[in-house]
Amino acid sequence: MTESHPLNLQTAARQIKTWGTELGFNDLRITDTDLELDAARLKAWLGNNMHMPLEWMTDHGDMRYTPNSLLEGTQRVISVRLNYLPEDVDLIAPLKNENAAYISRYALGRDYHKLFRKRLAKLAAKISEAFPNSTQRALVDSAPVMEKALARKAGHGWVGKNSLIIHPEDGSYFFLGEIYTDLELPIDQPDDADRCDDCEACLKVCPTDAFIAPYQLEVKRCISYLTIENTGPIPLEFREAIGNRVFGCDDCQIICPWNKQPATTNEVDFSPRNDLDSADLSRLFRWNEEEFLTATVGSPLRRSGYHNFLRNLAIGLGNAPSSDEHISLLKQRLAENISELLNEHIQWAIERQESRRKRRRKSKRA
Ligand code: SF4
Ligand code: SF4
Question: What are the residue ranges in the chain where pLDDT is below 50?
């Protein structure tokens, strides 16, 4: 944009950041659109089929790394961070409790998209109002965008070996959103020095060995993919390793030393609903479809759908300590014959429960 404006661009950038803070964002930084380096990494990753079976990742050609092709004339990207970890939510206890259902900590409350989009749209509208001849487009997971690459360039942190953006003080529990703009705002400097050093904790802790190398995540092995996007059966080789993780996984964040004192949020929308931060596997497995739909209004859990949520819970119960209660609950659900896919997972769980019960009885007799 070359036209003169009531605000100069330095002042505008400061003003936009102030508006961002007023709207509740935790940080807002500005970068240019040169993603050449990151595009090369993305192409190599896609070339090795690490994204599969998420075929849609190649759907938009170069749009992902050329912001200009998504919004013509884009000069800058405003990268915005919103923390999501609710205060006082335990990360470890439910993971260690084999009778509990572990739900990724980002998914305990209301789906962030609505809140984030609304705020980002407000911010874009304010910018458009201050710069009447400029164009803005707000994006939250709604278009092919290299949000982590943009966040790194903008100075939100570095890309850790777990492939997440890590902020040196606040850790990695945050969502990212972007506004593309044709205003030539002054850019912020990256602070992307790799602080992972010789740490490999995230690579080692991953229950399903999803990292084929540092920074290289193989999607089809990741529990987040397996329990959320995957609509088919969960391969046998991963079932035991999945443990009680019934919706997503946070292990490679929890273990990270830069998350020892992570930034939290007091956004009411992100507070746990229906005690999902400490729910029992059996309580959730008892939900009928209506109860599931009522309990998950506006929740990210809707993404897996009822049947696949039960599928995940069946795996959790198969890995839970053996008990008569678990076995009878699983048999009850099997008798309902909800779907072939679910039945197969329930049968797997019953076999695991029964074989452990047999072993326990044998060892008692010995
Ligand atoms: S989210 Fe879990 S399964 Fe996926 S890479 Fe991280 S530790 Fe591994
Ligand atoms: S756990 Fe270690 S290697 Fe992994 S992202 Fe954190 S600092 Fe880097």
Answer: 2-3
